Amino acid sequence: MAGFQEPLAKRPKIEGYCRFNSKSTHIPIQQSPVRNVNGYFGNKQHSSNIPVPKSINTPQGKANGSGGIHSNRNTDHLKNLFKQRSALPIFPARSRLLEELKKSDVVIVIGETGSGKTTQIPQYLHEERWDRKGTICITQPRRVAAITIAKRVAEEMNTNLGGLVGYSVRFEELVSQSTKLKYVTDGMLLREAISDPLLSKYSWIILDEAHERTISTDVLFGIVKGAQKSRKIVAGDPLKVIVMSATMDVDHFSNYFNKCPVLYIEGRQHPVEMFYAREKQEDYILATMSTVFQIHKEAPPQHDILVFLTGQEEIDSVTHSIRQIAKDSSLQEYPKLRVYPLYAALPALQQLDVFRETASGERKIIISTNIAETSVTIPGIRYVVDSGRAKIRTYIPGSGFDVLKVKKISQAQAWQRTGRAGRETSGCCYRAYTLNEFNAMTVNPVPEILRSNLASVILQLVAVGIKNILTFDFIDKPSALHVQQAVEHLSLLGAITLRSETLELTETGKKMAQFPIDPRYAKIILSGPEYGCTDEILTIVAVLSSESIYINPSGKKDVAANTRRKFTSVEGDHITMLKIFRAFKASKENKVWAHENYLNHRNLMYAIAVRKQLVQVCQRCDISIVSCQQNFDSVRRCIVAGLFTNVAELQFGGKYITLDTKQEATLHPTSVLFGGKPAYVLFSELVVTGKTYMHINSVVDAQWLYEVAPEYFRKRHIKR
Ligand code: CDP
Ligand code: MG
Fold it and tell me: What whole-number distance in Å separates Cα of residue 3 and Cα of residue 589?
C-alpha cells in the first residue's frame, strides 16, 4: 500500500481505470437497487441462488422469559432486549431445536448470520437447566467476538459480566464460580484440554463459526469427540456437543461426527441482485473504490455500503482515501459520507461506530476485513462491494514459518459476503471480479490446518497426551510431510523427542506448553535466565503479543516517526520496543505522554497486562526473572535462541535472502533498520503484500546463530 494513498487523495475524479467512466446512467432517486454500475453485468440466475437452507419451520417457540432471566430490574431496556430476542429468526424454532438437541449427542446447527445462534442457544439450554452442574462453553475464533457476545448475553440475561455469563480469551478472563455460560476463544479451550483432556467442567461444548476452520477449532473437533466418547463410559456425566456455522460443508462435518443430524434455522434473506466485473481488474483496490463512488452517486441516502477488503493497513488507507475524495466539490451534491474501518484489531469503542444508525441525508460506508462475513452483523447495508480477496495466513513449505498473504477467497465466502446485502431488505452485490474468476475460486476455504505452521498445535497435542499425531482423529488430516517438518522444528527448539513413532515432551517442552504463545517465543522466554535477560525478554514478547503500539496517522507518518526517533536503537525494532516500554513505565503509564509520542496507550496497557500474565507463568515454571539492564547484546542473542529460523542474509547487490527457504525478502519501511544494510537480520514475521516484507527486525551476528543451532546452520553454509 506504500505510495498508494497520496496520489489517490490528490485525484478526486475517479477516472481512467476499471472501465468505469463518469457518464453513469441516471437512476431515479428512490429507485433501488442501483442496477447500472458501469463495468458490471447482472446475473439474475445467481440472485436467487444464495444457498438459503430449508428451515426447521415450527413456529411454536416458547415465549420463555423466566428461566435464566432475572426479573428484578425490569426496566424498559430489558423489555426492549426481550422484544429483540423474540424477534430473532431462531426464536420460533426454540422448542423444535431443543427437542433435537435432547435427542442427539452431537448436532450441527446452520443459520444465517444474525439469526441468533451464538447469543440465544446457550441461553435456551440454561433456561431449561440442561447445563446441570456443568458449564456451557461456546468457542469463537476471534477474541473480540467472544468478549462482545458475552457482554451482550450478560445484558440480555440481566446479570453482570463475569457472573452467570463470562468470557476467557488469551491474556484476559472474566469468569467466576457461578459462570454457566462461558464464551471462549477456541485457542483457550484447547489450552484447557492440556490439564483436563476430558473437559470435565463442561456439560455442553458449542463449537461456533466452524466454517472458519481455524487450527484450534479443527483440533478441538478431535479432542471434543474423544472426550465425549470417554465420558460416555462414566454414567451421568455426558458431554453434549453443538457445531454451529452460517455456512459450511455439511456432509463432511456430519460424516465426521458419525452422521449426526443437521438443523437449519431459516434466516431472513432477501433477494440480492448480483453483478460481476465485465473484465478482470488489475488493481482490486482501485476497482472496489471506483465501484463505491459509482454507487454513491446513484443510491439514495441511508443506503449503506459494505466493502470487503483485506488487512488493517489497506483498510485504513482506503478509508482515508475515500474520506479525502469525498471532500471534493464535485461530490458535494451527494449524501454526506461517513466512512468507517472495521477489523478485529480495532479498539472496541471505534467498532461501535460501525453499528450506529445512519442519520437522514447521510450514507455509511464500512471498509471491512472478512470479520463482517459472519462474525458481526451491521445494520443498514444495502450494497456489498466484494474485492474477492482476504489476508490469509499461509505456511511456506519447508520452513518453520507462516506468511500473511493477500489471496482470493473461496466461493462459500463470496456467497457469505453477498448475503450481507440482503439482511434487512433486498440489496445488491458487486463483485469486483469476473464470473470466470468466481468459477475458478475454490468452493470452500482451505482449512488453516492444511496451510499453517503446525509446531504450536503439535506441541499442544503432545501436551494433551496425544503421542502419535498421524493417528489423531483430524477432520482433515495434515500431510505427513507437514507434520514431520513441525516435529523437526520442535526438536530443534528442544521441546520434544521422538522415540519409535511416539512423541514425548522434554522438560523444556513441558514448560513451553505452559505459555499461551508461539513455541518459538516460549523458547525465548525460557532462554532468558541463560542470557541474564528474562526481564527484558518478557517485555519484548508482551509487546509483540499486543496490537501495534505505534500510531501512524495518515498524512502525519513522518512526524510520528520523527517524534519517536529518540527511542530508536540501531540494534533494531525489538530493542526499540523495549526502550519505548521502559520510557512508558517511567512516565507512569501516562496517557498524554503516549499520545505526544504517537504511541497507542491502550495497546501499551494491554502489553503491561500480558507481561504480568507471562510473569505468572514464569513463576509457575520456576523460571528466574533476571535483568541485563543495558546489555542489549544479550537480549538479541536470547531472541536468536527461539527465532533462529527467521534470519535473512544480505547478498551482493543489497538484497536479502532468508536462510531457511532461500526466498527474497525486504526490510519493511516501518522497521528502524529500513535503509541500513546489516549482514544478518532476524525478523519476527514475513508479510507478503506484493513484495515479501520482513517485519520487526533485529541485527544479529552470524556467530550467535552457530552457537544456538550449530547443526541447522552448518547445513545452510552461512559466512562467518
Ligand atoms: O450467531 P448468529 O450470527 O446467528 O447471531 P447472534 O450473534 O446470536 O446475534 C443475534 C442478534 O443479536 C444480532 O442480529 C444482533 O441484533 C444482536 N447482537 C447484538 O446486538 N450485539 C452483539 N454483540 C451480538 C448480537
Ligand atoms: Mg454467531
Answer: 34
Instruction: Tell me the average pLDDT of the chain.
Output: 85
β 135-140/181-185 pair status: parallel
Q: Which residue owns the Cα nearest ligand 1 atom 17?
A: 114
Query: Please, which contacts does 328-334 make with residues 24 or more away whose CB atoms are closer than 8 Å?
Result: 328/12, 328/13, 330/12, 330/13, 331/12, 331/293, 331/296, 331/297, 334/296, 334/297, 334/363
Q: H helices of 129-181, where?
A: 143-156
Contacts of 235 (CB under 8 A, 6+ apart): none
| pTM of the predicted model as reported, rounded to 2 decimal places | 0.82
Q: Which residues contact 169 (CB under 8 A, 6 or more apart)?
A: 143, 146, 147, 184, 185, 188
Give 454 Cα–ligand 2 centroid separation in angstroms: 27
Q: Is the pLDDT of residue 66 over 60?
A: no
CA distance 514 to 460: 9
Among the atoms of ligand 1, which is closest to the Cα of residue 116? 8
Look up residue 26 and give its DSSP letter. P
Q: Mind giving me the DSSP string for 32-96?
A: -S----TTEEE-HHHHT-S-PPPP----------STT---TT--HHHHHHHHHHHTSTTGGGHHH
Q: Say how far apart CA 411 and CA 210 lie, in whole Å.
A: 16
Cell 525478554 -> residue:
537
Residue with CA nearest ligand 1 atom 15? 114
Beta bridge partners of 138: 183, 206
Eight-class DSSP state of 458: H
Whether the upstream peptide bond of residue 397 has omega within 30° of 0, thus cis, is: no
Q: Which residues surround ligand 2, an ion (CB under 5 A)?
A: 117-118
Cα(612)–Cα(473) distance, integer angstroms: 36
Ligand nearest the Cα of residue 152 is 1
Ligand 1 pocket by Cβ (under 6 Å): 88, 111, 113-120, 148-149, 152, 377
CA–centroid distance for 495 within its chain: 27
* Domains of the chain (ranges, CATH numbers): 27-265 (3.40.50.300), 272-448 (3.40.50.300), 454-506 (no CATH), 514-620 (no CATH), 644-720 (no CATH)
Q: Do 394 and 285 meet the contact criterion of CB atoms below 8 Å apart?
A: no
Type of residue found at 659: L
Q: Is the pLDDT of residue 75 over 90?
A: no
- By alpha-carbon position, which residue is closest to atom 16 of ligand 1? 114
CA distance 124 to 209: 19
Residue 14: what pLDDT? 25
**Distance from the alpha carbon of residue 547 to the mean position of ligand 1, in angstroms:** 26
Q: Per the structure block, which three cell numbers stand in for 615? A: 510473569
Q: CA-to-CA distance for 682 and 671, rounded, in angstroms?
A: 12
Residue nearest to atom 23 of ligand 1 (CA): 149
pLDDT at 717 over 80: no
Please answer whether residues 369 and 342 qualify as being in contact, where contact means their C-beta atoms are separated by less than 8 angstroms. Answer: yes
Confidence of residue 399 (pLDDT cuts 50, 70, 90): low
pLDDT in tens, 503-531: 999 999 999 999 989 999 999 999 999 99
